[in-house]
Design goal:
This protein has 328 residues and is an alpha/beta fold. It has helices at residues 7-23, 25-35, 43-50, 78-85, 101-115, 131-158, 160-164, 190-200, 214-229, 231-237, 268-271, 300-312, 314-327; strands at 4-5, 59-62, 72-75, 91-94, 119-122, 186-187, 208-212, 242-246, 259-264, 281-283. InterPro entries: DHS-like_NAD/FAD-binding_dom.
């Protein structure tokens, strides 16, 4: 059973977003411009994305910085992306609370520049128009779910020797595969549902997931969802899939060894929903934002580039960069 289902909430919120989006267009852009490195986008890209109303859960494909005025493609649905672009990237990013297509594209461009290859970005929201709803549904809902998973996993790890001796005991399934420990997926969140759709596609071979803020929790949610609904697919994907988080330290499935998590030294906002005893890298003097034009930022491009060789391995890094040549 999932911890919760917020689909009804998401639908109600979406019905109200249209009018609010038109009223808050400028504030949407301002919010993304504060938290994300929008200066890495061209004027043409910013103009198109700032005026766009891509819904939460739609997908962008972002090229590394280049001379072209527009290096961003938009797909309204996961199915559309998979049909047209699944072979052109193996990296996916999810931005944070209140991020519109502009913030998603900026985060994807930072990661694309670090990789030297195209990156897919799942749009997390509409910007300031749904900041409050995203904060409540994202931080508190996903944060509580992530804490619950961590607690359950700790209990199971502690009692694993005892449970392993009870293989023939009726009811052991409640603790084993497919039981309480493998559930906990929060249904109905469009960004998590979109990522789950990508991860579950057998023809899509993801190698890197990058999240910021609430996006980190959405990534964790989707990974637990995949483990719950398709254990065989999860078992194939997990050992090869690397995860990098910024602005929130989350609890991830133990079957995933390739993880690096970054938290700013003075990031109280991200720290509220972080599992601080999980291994993470503290970025000195940094707060929650990724905008390199502002003091106290975390540079996704520099931090990610520094850990990529050990996070992905040399062979995987070469494979990802090879996609850049195929995309040109």
């Amino acid at each position: 059973m999932p911890i919760s289902n917020i689909a009804g909430y998401a639908e109600a919120e979406r019905a109200l977003v249209g009018p609010a989006l038109r009223m808050l267009r400028g504030r949407n852009t301002a919010l993304d411009s504060w938290f994300y490195d929008v200066g890495c986008l061209t004027a043409g890209e910013s103009l198109i994305l700032g005026a766009d109303s891509n819904p939460e859960g739609s997908v962008l494909l972002v090229q590394p910085a280049r001379a072209a005025e527009v290096g961003v493609e938009r797909f309204r649905t996961v199915a559309g992306f998979l049909a047209q672009a699944r072979e052109r990237t193996t990296a996916v990013v999810l931005a944070g609370v209140g991020s519109s297509a502009l913030g998603t594209a900026a985060l994807a461009r930072n990661v694309a520049d670090a990789l030297g290859a195209p990156v897919a970005g799942i749009v997390s929201g509409y910007g300031a128009a749904d900041l409050f709803g995203e904060a409540v549904g994202g931080w508190f809902g996903f944060g509580a779910a992530n804490q619950a998973r961590q607690t359950a996993d700790r209990i199971l790890d502690r009692f694993a020797p005892f449970l392993s001796s009870m293989d023939e005991t009726p009811g052991r399934g409640a603790f084993g595969k497919g039981g309480a420990s493998s559930s906990g997926y929060v249904e109905g969140a469009p960004d998590s549902e979109a990522l789950l759709g990508l991860l579950g596609d057998p023809a899509f071979e993801p190698r890197l997931l990058v999240g910021h803020s609430k996006g980190c929790l959405s990534i964790a949610n989707a990974l637990y969802g995949l483990r719950s609904v398709d254990a065989a697919r999860f078992a194939r994907v997990a050992p090869r899939l690397a995860v990098a988080t910024f602005g929130a330290v989350v609890h991830l499935p133990s079957q995933m060894p390739r993880v690096r998590q970054f938290l700013g030294e003075i990031d109280g906002f991200g720290g509220m929903n972080s599992r601080r005893h999980e291994a993470h890298i503290v970025v000195p003097g940094a707060w929650h934002h990724l905008n390199t034009m502002l003091p106290g930022h975390v540079s996704v491009r520099l931090q990610l580039a520094a850990v990529l060789p050990e996070l992905l391995g040399a062979a995987a890094a070469r494979d990802i960069r090879g996609l850049a040549m195929n995309a040109t």
